[in-house]
């Protein structure tokens, strides 16, 4: 790996992390707890385009979770759920099934809510999963399908050179 590539990846990681964290914290009333509509989560589909986006997504989630009402539990386990989701997304060949990894995060976040706030696990997990499904599948899927078909937009966004061939 050459120095220029490393500098580029540091910059991309920082930008992605900053956008994710700022969006989450700015929209805190809908970003945390069981009724979660975390708009920043649509960004995890960047991992489908290139795994090089994963560090920024994970770092952004960790930073955003520092502001969570669940405290360090969310920093650790909420970030772990993002690690698992982006790993799944990078290993899924088609976009639509890749979006479902975000909904699976509800299983971990539901456990956090049950532990910290003594909520019903299944209700909390289902609610978070539904919010993730709404943001990442219902909103993110058509958005990323359009982005990936738009060559001009892909050039403007300057995604890292190592892109996998996309099957929407």
Q: Classify the fold: give the CATH topology.
A: Arp2/3 complex 21 kDa subunit ARPC3
Q: What structural class results from the helix and strand content?
A: mainly alpha
Oligomer: single chain
Q: Helical segment tally?
A: 8
Comma- or semicolon-separated keywords:
168 residues; mainly alpha; globular
Structure report:
By secondary structure, the chain is mainly α. It has one domain (3-157): Orthogonal Bundle (Arp2/3 complex 21 kDa subunit ARPC3). It contains 8 helices and no strands. It has helices at 3-26, 28-31, 46-49, 54-65, 72-90, 95-117, 121-149, 151-157. The mean pLDDT is 90.
Secondary-structure map:
Layout: H1 3-26, H2 28-31, H3 46-49, H4 54-65, H5 72-90, H6 95-117, H7 121-149, H8 151-157
Helix pairs in contact: 1-4, 4-5, 5-6, 6-7
State the gist of this model:
Helix content is 73%, strand content 0%. With 168 residues, the chain is mainly α.
